[in-house]
TrEMBL record:
Regulation of catalytic or functional activity: Uridylyltransferase (UTase) activity is inhibited by glutamine, while glutamine activates uridylyl-removing (UR) activity.
Protein name per its UniProtKB record: Bifunctional uridylyltransferase/uridylyl-removing enzyme
GO MF entries: [protein-PII] uridylyltransferase activity
Keyword Repeat: yes
Record field: catalytic activity: [protein-PII]-uridylyl-L-tyrosine + H2O = [protein-PII]-L-tyrosine + UMP + H(+); [protein-PII]-L-tyrosine + UTP = [protein-PII]-uridylyl-L-tyrosine + diphosphate
UniProt note: domains: Has four distinct domains: an N-terminal nucleotidyltransferase (NT) domain responsible for UTase activity, a central HD domain that encodes UR activity, and two C-terminal ACT domains that seem to have a role in glutamine sensing.
Task performed by this protein: Modifies, by uridylylation and deuridylylation, the PII regulatory proteins (GlnB and homologs), in response to the nitrogen status of the cell that GlnD senses through the glutamine level. Under low glutamine levels, catalyzes the conversion of the PII proteins and UTP to PII-UMP and PPi, while under higher glutamine levels, GlnD hydrolyzes PII-UMP to PII and UMP (deuridylylation). Thus, controls uridylylation state and activity of the PII proteins, and plays an important role in the regulation of nitrogen metabolism.
Family listed: Belongs to the GlnD family.
Region (Uridylyltransferase): 1-320
EC number: 2.7.7.59, 3.1.4.-
Ranges of residues in domain HD: 435-536
CDD domains xrefs: ACT_ACR-UUR-like_2, HDc
Length: 825
């Protein structure tokens, strides 16, 4: 859309105060926004600087000089807090006079508090600096005359552009390397929760780079949507500058709602989705452009020699890949005989061939398919379904091919429900990707597990569909099951296979949530999972999907510990599905180590403990692999009130993360109290699985000393944890984040042996200590605790009983949950 230029409102005088007042009026005009405001601000600034320069040149007696805008200002795009990028060009005359001229221009700018990036050079010096510094060369490509000798500016522009085109074969690979390094450092704009609108991949810097590539005449970016995407990012940056009052390009979480409101958008998620869509357009244009640059440079270096050898022109070699699909110049293109208007499967066949070959699909081929391919019939023919599965099973090569199809709207045409998850942000910091990219990443991860399942096609399809429900209100697993049935039927799966895919989608979180939050020794736990899964074949697929989903979520979502728990649960469920009954848990006899600690605690009247590292997972490298299984902490302590919160508090003080905790009374027949007066009051055995947040584990002696002090009241744990929490909240990455309130529920039919209380809350130092205090106050006994933390979210399950060891009545359990939630709020 072409914007209408509205003249900037004139200001009373050419001095700083007149310019400042006119600038403020312009920024406060609600009717002026977007390109109109940016160009108006640039024009207003031009007029002020022209007046400054003209007066200064007369005063200093300098001739043959010009004031030139470069970079973003050179393009006439001034955001409210943008730097002024200025170059003072001169013909090499009196250095003192040139310096005086520069001072008379720069100081008024500084006096207004405007950010200034300035330089003073002759045209020869400017060309020399550009030849040495690629970033300077890029800025000069946008040079624009403001005041002074127009011939000096025009001469420099012509020379710089000629240099750029002559040096393009050398400079463009350097520029590409810079872009790749910046992307590795800043991340991809289309996936970041707090993106840098300028420096991240797909941001404003990349849009500027594409202009520079086009200026080289070697290649040009796909134009469709590119200017609109760039304008949208500039509009967001403008709103960010006006909202914060700062020259920032980072769209921080705490500012997104205000920026969205300033742009007239519904909410922060709508804002992020628009940012992601713009970034995706720019990033894809970059991929296509750099591929074309590489192709042109390779052709320039090879073909002249080849032509000379063959004595004439050579036709590009074309290698058949599939029906209607060939490889040419390192890209997948359509064969000359291909007829997209007659072959509805051709888009999927071309995509599958490209992914299997590890080649990109040419832009021309994708656009021709998007323009001419006829829709697939519903349900799809078997060939189309097989080609989709082949595409999903190609591993990492799937991603660029999928992105190419999506850029031209082919994915949404094939799978209409894709539109609801496309570019949808995920606010949970555990997630690395947007919903749509996470789905593709899950399929990529699942492709590595296709040899361990009997139906790879069902695994890959479920991986692609498992989070489709996130585009709808309510529980995404429940909504996703309905969508998965519809999509799987549309794709052409048989009814039984549709049922399996729907079950996988409905229960894709079941294994990991059960394994990390429930007591696997409880028959009710295993039976509930077996009933939900239904068959060993589905269990096998669900196990693979669980791991693929977690690996595609982010590094915090999967570990050797979680993998071991899930594998244990799968083994127990498989036995039940094979006909075995889950064994009722029998109180295990204390191990020799536990018995030794219990006797020592009983004899001394104080806590004793031991730390014992757990073995690595098979084949795991302790240094480079996933996190180890943790450390077993055994504690024996004379039974007394406050044991659970005391132990939890001491562990939090020592920065130990608790994963599981089991508490039980030890039977010590014939034991006598520490003072020899007769039988004691009993001993509690606590079996905890812990891991150090960072650094080495604390010494057992230090833990014991602090535990003794915590139990006798001489160690003020709440005060120590409050101090840590204050430091935790000051962390810049947490500042401004609005955490939802905690939620405590009673898990229905969680166990026949105990009541399961589930706590969902913001993770913070001492959370388990506070929960323990609240449960103690509610006069319930904790049999075991299962702690799971994903990013900033803690989901903990506590198996509790009444004083006599029986599950709590429903009313009492609900009251305990309400009390605990109130304490955490």
């Amino acid at each position: 859309m072409t914007s209408v230029e509205v003249p900037a409102e004139p200001y009373e005088d050419s001095g700083p105060s007149g310019y400042a007042a006119a600038r403020l009026r312009l920024l406060q005009e609600e009717s002026r926004s977007g390109p109109s405001r940016r160009s108006g601000l640039a024009r207003l600034t031009d007029e002020w600087l022209e007046a400054l320069f003209t007066t200064a040149a007369l005063a200093s007696g300098v001739r043959g000089a010009a004031l030139v805008a470069v970079g973003g200002y050179g393009r006439g795009e001034l955001s409210p807090r943008s730097d002024l990028d200025l170059l003072l060009l001169h013909d090499g005359g009196d250095p003192g006079a040139v310096a005086a001229l520069a001072d008379r221009v720069w100081y008024p700018v500084w006096d207004l508090g405007l950010a200034l990036d300035h330089s003073v050079r002759t045209p020869a010096e400017a060309r020399k600096t550009a030849g040495e510094d690629l970033k300077v060369h890029l800025g000069l490509l946008d040079a624009r005359h403001i005041a002074g000798d127009l011939g000096v500016t025009a001469g420099l522009r012509t020379a710089v552009l000629a240099d750029w085109r002559n040096l393009a074969p050398k400079r463009l690979p350097e520029l590409h390397a810079l872009c790749q390094e910046r992307a590795a450092r800043q991340g991809e704009l289309q996936y970041l929760l707090e993106p840098d609108l300028k420096e991240a991949r797909g941001g404003l810097r990349d849009a500027t780079v594409l202009r520079a590539v086009a200026a080289s005449w070697l290649a040009d970016a796909p134009r469709e949507g590119l200017d609109a995407a760039r304008r949208r990012l500039l509009d967001v940056r403008d709103a960010l500058h006006l909202t914060t009052g700062r020259a920032t390009d980072r769209l921080a979480l705490q500012e997104q709602d205000q920026v969205a409101a300033a742009l007239g958008l519904l909410d922060a998620d709508t804002l992020l989705r628009e940012v992601y869509e713009a970034a995706r357009t720019i990033a894809y244009a970059g991929d296509v452009t750099w591929r074309e640059v590489g192709r042109v440079l390779r052709a320039r270096s090879v073909r002249p020699r080849l032509r000379a050898m063959l004595g004439g022109k050579t036709a590009p070699e074309r290698t058949p890949l599939a029906e209607g699909v060939v490889e040419q110049d390192g890209e997948v293109v359509l064969a000359r005989t291909a007829r997209p208007e007659r072959d509805a499967v051709l888009p999927l066949r071309a995509a599958a061939a490209a992914a299997q070959s590890g080649l990109p699909v040419s832009l021309h081929a994708v656009r021709r398919l998007a323009a001419m391919a006829r829709p697939l019939p519903v349900p799809w023919p078997a060939e189309a379904r097989e080609e989709l599965v082949t595409l999903l099973g190609a591993g990492e090569a799937t991603i660029p091919v999928w992105e190419a199809l999506e850029a031209e709207g082919l994915i949404t045409r094939l799978l209409p429900d894709w539109e609801r998850v496309r570019c949808r942000p995920q606010r949970n910091p555990v997630h690395t990707w947007t919903v749509d990219r996470h789905l593709v990443e899950t399929a990529v991860r699942a492709s590595a597990f296709t040899r361990r399942v009997h139906r790879p096609d069902l695994l890959l399809t479920a991986a692609l569909l498992h989070d489709f429900g996130k585009g709808w209100p309510g529980d995404h697993s429940v909504a996703g099951e309905i969508i998965a049935r519809d999509v799987a039927t549309r794709i052409g799966f048989e009814r039984a296979d549709v049922g399996v895919i729907a079950t996988l989608v409905r229960h894709h979180l079941l294994l990991v949530e059960t394994a990390t939050r429930r007591d696997l020794d409880d028959p009710a736990t295993v039976r509930a999972v077996a009933d939900a899964v239904g068959s060993t074949g589905t269990l096998e697929l669900l196990h693979a999907l669980t791991e693929a989903d977690a690996l595609a979520t982010g590094p915090a979502a999967w570990s050797a510990w979680r993998a071991s728990l899930v594998a244990d649960l799968v083994g127990r469920v498989a036995a039940v599905l094979a006909g075995a009954e889950p064994a009722a848990p029998q109180p295990a006899a204390p191990s020799a180590e536990q018995e030794r600690l219990a006797i020592e605690a009983f004899r001394t009247g104080g806590p004793v403990l031991s730390l014992r590292a757990q073995p690595q997972a098979p084949g795991e490298d302790a240094g480079d692999g996933p996190e180890p299984l943790g450390v077993e902490l055994l504690i024996a302590v004379p039974d007394q009130p406050g044991v659970l919160p005391a132990v939890a508090g001491v562990l939090a003080m020592h920065r130990l993360t608790v994963r599981t905790a089991e508490l039980r009374a030890a039977e010590l027949p014939g034991a006598v109290a520490a003072d020899g007066s007769g039988p004691g009051t009993g001993v509690l055995l606590l079996d905890w699985r812990v891991a150090a947040e960072y650094g080495a584990l604390p010494q057992a002696a230090r833990l014991r000393a602090d535990l003794v002090r915590a139990l006798d009241g001489s160690l003020d744990i709440p005060a120590r944890l409050a101090e840590r929490e204050r430091a935790y909240e000051k962390n810049p990455r947490r500042r401004g984040a609005q955490a939802p309130p905690p939620r405590v529920t009673v898990a229905p039919a969680g166990s026949r042996l105990a009541t399961v209380i589930e706590v969902r809350a913001q993770d913070a130092p001492g959370l388990l200590h506070r929960i323990g205090h609240a449960l103690e106050a509610a006069k319930v006994r904790v049999r075991s605790a299962h702690v799971s933390t994903l990013g900033a979210n803690a989901v903990d399950a506590f198996y509790v009983t009444g004083p006599e060891g029986a599950p709590l009545p429903d009313g009492e359990a609900a009251e305990v949950a309400r009390t605990l939630e109130g304490a955490l709020r």
